[in-house]
Every structure is written in C-alpha cells, then in structure tokens.
C-alpha cells in the first residue's frame, strides 16, 4: 500500500461519508464526488467526476453500488450517474472497490477487463458487520420491549455470524439466552458458552420474551407461529424475504419487526470504518 | 402475606399500570382508581376512590406520590385528587405503600398515625432499578453514537449501583470499559472485573468515545470539560442538577444528554414488576 | 435408538468407565469386559468377552482403541486382548464404536465389512473436548503461575476450537487476553469478543505472563523464543511434536509445559459423557 | 512517599519474599532480615536486624506478624526473634507495617506509642485478596471434580467479597451459578449478574455438583447436609472453624475440602504485590 495513495470516493450513503473521512484522517488524499450536500469534517476535496478520475488510482464505489441497476447510488447528490460503457471506460485503468458489485457488472462488458474488488464478499467484512447488526437488534429490542433485557428470555434462531455476536452480547447484558442450530457441533459450541441450545425444529416450543431470527428461510412459518404459547417480540434480522411469515404473524397479532441493513442505519461511522479497513487489507495483499 | 389480599392502586404512570396488571396476574383482586383512559389487559376493577377504600386493605400510591406537592400524580386521569386531611383520613386504617412519600407527609399531620411504607427507600428497590437505568443508558448510547459500543472506549464515572450494573453490561457488549471511583477498595473491585480503574480526579484525562456520569455532583465542571482532548458523547445519569456543567459543555460544543427517570420511560413493565416485588417482600416481613 | 439396547464396553481408561456408568444410569444394560480392578457405581455386568458379544448389539471400544497397534487398550485389566482376525470375527455383526480406529483397521481385513463408527472424527466430539482441554490448561496455569490469572497478560496462540474456548474462559476469569490468528476474519472475531488480536507472525512480540499454544506446528521456534522480552510460562496444548522448540526453550531457561490428552486426565467424567452423547447422536441418525 | 525511601523487611513467608522483590524492582532500597535460605532475584540486602533498623524508616512485618504470639513468623529463617519490649524498643521511631497485628500489640506496652499500620484491616486489601482466594478455589475444584466446571451446577454460599469474585469467575468459565444471600438487595445484585439467587436458608435444597462456602458460621450443619439430595464436592473457604459440620459430612460420606489461606499458597507473587500496593497507598495518604 503506497503512502501517497489517492482515493476517489463516488456516491453512497452515510457509511461512504464516514469512510471517506476516516481515510482522510489517516493522511491520504481523498477526492469525493456525489456529496454536494455534505460538509465533511476532514480535509476532503469535493470534485467533479473527471477530476476524481484524474487524481486517483483507487476508486471506491458505494455499498451497494446501485439500487436500481441503472444509476450509481448517491444519497447525498441530486445528480444521476448512469452506469454504462462510458462510466466503465472512465474507470478502465483504476483499481475499483465496491460492495455488491454484481449488478454493476451487468451494465457494461468492459468490467471484465477492469481490476475490481468486491469487499462485501470478504469474510472479515461479513464478520465485522455482524457487530453493528447485533447492536442494532439490541437497540430495537430495548426500545420496543417494555421490560429489561437483563433477566429476559431471549431466543436467537441461528448460530451464524450474527447469531454468534448477538447471543454473546445478550448474555453479557444478563439475558437468559437460548440459541437454535441444526448441527450438534453448533449445539456443543452454544452450550460451552453458557447458553441453552435447541435444535432448529424446536424453535416453536419454549417461552420467550424476545425472538431474534437470523435464519434466511421461513423457519417461523404459520405452524410454528400458531403453536407459540408466549407472546414474544420478534425481531427478524434475516435478509428479504426474512424468516417470519408476516401475514400469519399479523393474523395471530404477533409483534414482528423486520430489521434490514442495520449497520448503515445504526452505526454509519463503524460501518464506514469496516469498509475502509477491508479495503486497506485488500491493498496490502 | 394473605392469599385473599385486595390491592387498591391509585394513580401514577405506566409503571403503576404494569404493577397493577402484574398483581392481578398473580391472582389477587385489584381495584384501580385514576386510570379512566387505560384499558387493562388483566382482570382489574376500575373503581371510584371510595369503592377502592371499601374493598382493599393495601393501598398503593404512585412513585412519586405527588409531583407538585398538592395533587396525587395521576397521568392517566383527568380528575385531580387533592392530598389533604380528607385524603389521609380515608386511608387511616390501611396499609399504605408509595414511592418518595416525603412530600405526602407534609400534606396532613394524620400521616404520623398511618401505617406507611416507602418502597423507594429500600435497598433492593434501588439495586433493581439500576438495571433498567443502565439499559436505558445503553439504548441512548446506541442511538446517539455513530460507531458501535463494541470496541469503543467508555468511561463510567462512579461505581455505585448504576455504575456497577452499567459497566458490567458495557463490558458484556465488548466495550473497553474504564470506571472511576474515589476509594482504592472500589478500584480493586473495578480491576478485578477486567475494567480499567481510575481515580475520580482523573476523569478529565484519557480519551473516551462515551462518558456515562453517575455521580450526583459537578465532577464534569468547566475545568474538566475544557481539558478534554477527545470529543465524547456524554450521558449524564445523575439526578438533578446532574454532574455536568451544561453551560460550559454547550460553549465547548460537547454533546451532553441528561437522562432522567429512565426506568419508567424505557422499561415500564420491568419498573412495575420491581415495585410489586418490593411490596410483596415488605408484606412478607 | 431402541429402548432395550444393550451396550458392550471393552477396555479403555477412566473415560470408558465414566461412559459405561453414565450409559447404565440412563437405564440401558451394560456389559463390561476388561475392568477386573474396577468397582462400578452403577449396575454394570462385568463379563467375559464372549458373554458381552452374546448379549450386546452395540460394542464400544476405547479411545484410542489401541496404543501399540497390537493389543486393545485396557488400563484396568491384566488380560491382553490381541487385535487380529479372530477379534474382528467376533464383532462381525455388531455396531462397533471406537475412537482413533485407524490402527485397528490395519489389524484385520475383516474390518472393511463391519459396521464401525469412529466417534473421535465427529465435529461435535472435537468441540466438546475443547472444554475439558481448556479447563485443564487453566488448572495448570493456576498451579504453576505464582500470580493470579485475573489481571495477567495471556497470549492464546491459535483460534481453533481450543483457542476459542480457552480465550473465552480466560477472559471470564479477568485475564487480559490476546489471541493470535492468521486470517483477518479470525482477527475480526477475536476483537469482537473484547480480546486483542494479533497476526500469528507477531507472537514473538509483546509482553505476556503466560502463553498458551494451540497451533500444531513449530510457531515458537528458536528465533521467536530468543527475541521474547518477557519470561512467560508457556503451556503447549498442541499434539505431538507440539508448537514449541523444547531444546531452544531449555537453553533460554524458559518454563514450558507440554500438556497432552487433558480431557481424560483432568475430567474423565466429562470426557466419558462426551463419548456417550456422541454415540447416542450417531445411533439416532 | 519519598523517593529515597528504604524498606526493612522482617520475616514471613513466600508473600513477604515476593513483596520484597517487588519493592526492590520499583527502585527502592530493601534490607531483609530472616531469609537466610532465600536467594532473591532482585537487589535486596540481606542484613542483621540491627543493620535493617539503622538504614530503614519503614519496617514491614509479616502477615500474620506472629503465629504463636511469642515469636516473629519467619518461615525462611532458623533464628527465633522474640516479640518483647526489646523488639518494640528497636522499632520505636519507625513506621511499622504488618498484617494481623493484634497479637503483636499484646507483647509490649510500647506499641501504643509506635506508628503502626495494619494493612490487613484495609478494605482494598481484603477485596484484592478475594481474587487469589477465588482462583485457589477454582483450582481445587478443577483438580478434584471429575467433570468440567463449564456446564456444572455450582452453589456459592454467601455474597461477600469472595462470593462476588468467585461467582463472577465461575460464570465466566461457563458454570451454571447459584448464589445464596440473606438480603433481598443482595439477591437483586445476584440476579442482575445472570446468576440464580436463593436465600441462605435454602442452601440445602437444589442439586449442585459443587458447593463453595464463604460464610463463616455453620450454615452447612448436620440437618442441611442430611437432606442434600445430590453428592456435591464441598469446598469450604470460610476461616476456622469454617461453615461445614465436618463430622456430619464424614458420616454422610460427603467430600469436603477446607481451604484456608489460599492467597499465600496459590499465588504468593500476587499476594506479595497486594501487600506492597496497600502499603504504598498508606504511605501516600
């Protein structure tokens, strides 16, 4: 990673702003395009797209690069940047970083020949994002649940990245934590941490004050929801369509919150740091 | 504690509602006055004051009993109950529970002869309320701080009840916790828990992302605030007037949140449970 | 798993005894061979080998099945059972369980046709054994280290199963925990838990009171040991030949303890339970 | 605390040795008497008593100062120092530190006029010693209990200093922790930490794998021991005569270990540090 590296930051949301400021705070030159409405704290040069391209070897696109498949995501800009052959051509000789780049690649065949890095595919990125996701879930639980988490009975469905971080935090707050998993090896892990462990097919039994779902398939379907004896707050953290049958939940008068994209919402600064450090690690390799 | 006990619940806020419902769920008769606008979940008899008095031996006044020193606190009623000799006379032969009863006692000399119990003076009550207070503080921190608490540098000023519970929870979430105290014995406790310990006079040194003050005197005065090198989020949990010089903080552009009466706000159900159980323990003695 | 299952337990060490008793306590018939010197607490039929074979469908061999490749491991028996075609022939129609069965299979070609299950290869078995291993390491550290673990600086080299469980326990005791790993994703996990994370190549830097090695290759070679500035207690948990250059350590006057096969030594009852439950899970599949 | 302070260290056990070395490592002059058999690591002047007195203003006696009430405790010396008027006369103008000084004061009326400090009476000293005591208890439990502490059911009787530290460590290792106390406020603390809380009179009920007693009166008397349904390992940490009826326990075939004076035994270095730092704090006041 060269010391005189210049980074061009194009569009995005609060995470991209935080990332840009953090890179600038590390002493690198940062040129930013797509942030007319933003007042940066750090020394960042707001520039036109061409200027960014002229000065920077490394270009950082947002996460996701595009929401509609056509334009660059740029929440803080009124300009619309079309993702097409011209855009790709501009970035031809650059090192291009971005998150969820799949739809970008469909906008031009040129991308095959450009040096791109999708940081959102890196394991470390996913692990680190589990932290703001878990904290976001806890914040929602604290706001919505009328009791205290301390002493409450919490079920965490799924023991992947988010399940691991979330169950640890809930335990640290003093909740009584049950975690579900499919494999005996995971149950062994779960129990070694002091939590209760149950098989995924048992999520419908037991009494819980709160249920945090992290499993991205319909575990909490109508039959499971129907046989629940308690009246838990359900926070669904699984990406769309989520793991809870929302219609059945509504009919059964269950309180379900589908919480998506928490890192960017609850901790943009942390989320920006995570992107920055993942990019640094890629540059060092 | 007799099994056929009848409880009269008079006025108050969400905690009093939750408490009434929890007592009813335990199988006791509950008569409630001062809740015209409330739809209770449990079997609770909404009644006129006289009816409550006629049926109940134990009367539970709210916390605080009065906000203005003249009327009974009753957030869910349009009626105004004056606290005077007549009111005291009504409760003469009852067992009367309440929180922060001091100002009530000034409204009539009759109170000297009435069997009263201020549950808010009990140690167990204060300890248990530290839990919703700490969770309320964490919820605020999660909402206001743009990073994650996990990995952040948190200072908890003061190692009393709230300081103890809060530092444990922050540590459990994965924050880097420093706690201040005045006594070496407290520093020994603090360090045995894995936190860093500093003397109270050192709170102005060190770099923190968040500061939680629990000390009810002006520790964070102008001189301390001025020499701070970092730009922390400050959450003041100390009762009025708090421990932070707000004017100095404003001039120095520091972000201070004075969070008061958190249990009733963030966890009315938990706070109601705490009141109920404290009363039960008094009745059993 | 049939309710009237009969288990034959052949030879082994304290774990096998604990396992046999635990199976009997669950209500199953247990026939044991190779335990002349043992007085079982539970109802267990000590029998000759032929009797065991006659009564039992499931036969449980020890862990490891053999130490010398020729005889059945049987610490509590004076008889020597040769592992050969005759032995295999005896077990031909049985369901045979055992640990580290590789060398057994070399004693007779018959084993190809026998229904065998090596429980020591199951992930859940390995995970669960990390718990007694970590506790054994902590017991050694408490015995050998003249200070307290609380507040001490501990390095855990490697973040596999043992590293994960051990670092969590050390942290729970209040040690200052640093963990090394090779991958950024593991460092992200490590830091999310509140530990310090370092890359494996950095294990020679930093000051530690204790070092727990879990990496089964020579990480602590002469060059690493030589540049250590502190004088740590080193506990090597990696299987033979371990991860520490013992000769270099001796020349440098470093205190190294190579701790092997801890589960059977420090917690035979727990180790026996783990074997039993793994076998039960296999039977249920 | 003067920079050129000289400390005289007289007699004692391993803690006193560790303390002397730690003081010397801080750069102070240390004169030691009563350690003929000891080879100190740090620069310490082994001296005759008179020489110590001549050079040092601060004299540190051991903990306890005397075991028999007549002689100075000096485990590493063959000389017997009689505690009498002559001894007191020698120390007349010194600042004298020591632990459990009560019996020393009975050896001469001169002590009334000498500047003495019994560090063992300081709260911080007691708090810090709870740490090696708790670790010593855990080491014993790990050695004696054939299962793992992780997942085991542990009762900690009493929620004083040792109870607090011990329950936290057991919880951190992953045990299922129940703590007994007499007061509701303590039960509130206990539950806020995620442990189960019971009243002291309930210690005889419930099933435990291990019981740690910290209460210095006979809580585990014959009637409590008799009605126990489980067969726990009992570790009694209370000072003599302890909290367990040993004769009844023996008749009932219960395994009881009375563990006394753990800090000096399991962690002399830590115990020496604690003494040193308490003395430093006294000197700074």
Automatic annotation (TrEMBL), chains A, B, C, D:
Q: Where is the Dipicolinate synthase subunit A N-terminal domain?
A: 7-101
User: Which EC number(s) does UniProt give?
Assistant: 1.3.1.-
Q: Fetch the InterPro entries from UniProt.
A: DpaA_N (IPR031629), NAD(P)-bd_dom_sf (IPR036291)
Keywords in alphabetical order: Oxidoreductase
Q: Does the keyword Ribosomal protein apply?
A: no
Tell me a Gene Ontology molecular-function term this record carries: oxidoreductase activity
Q: Which Pfam families match?
A: DpaA_N (PF16924)
Q: Report what the protein is called.
A: Dipicolinate synthase subunit A
Q: What is the lineage of its organism?
A: Bacteria, Bacillati, Bacillota, Clostridia, Eubacteriales
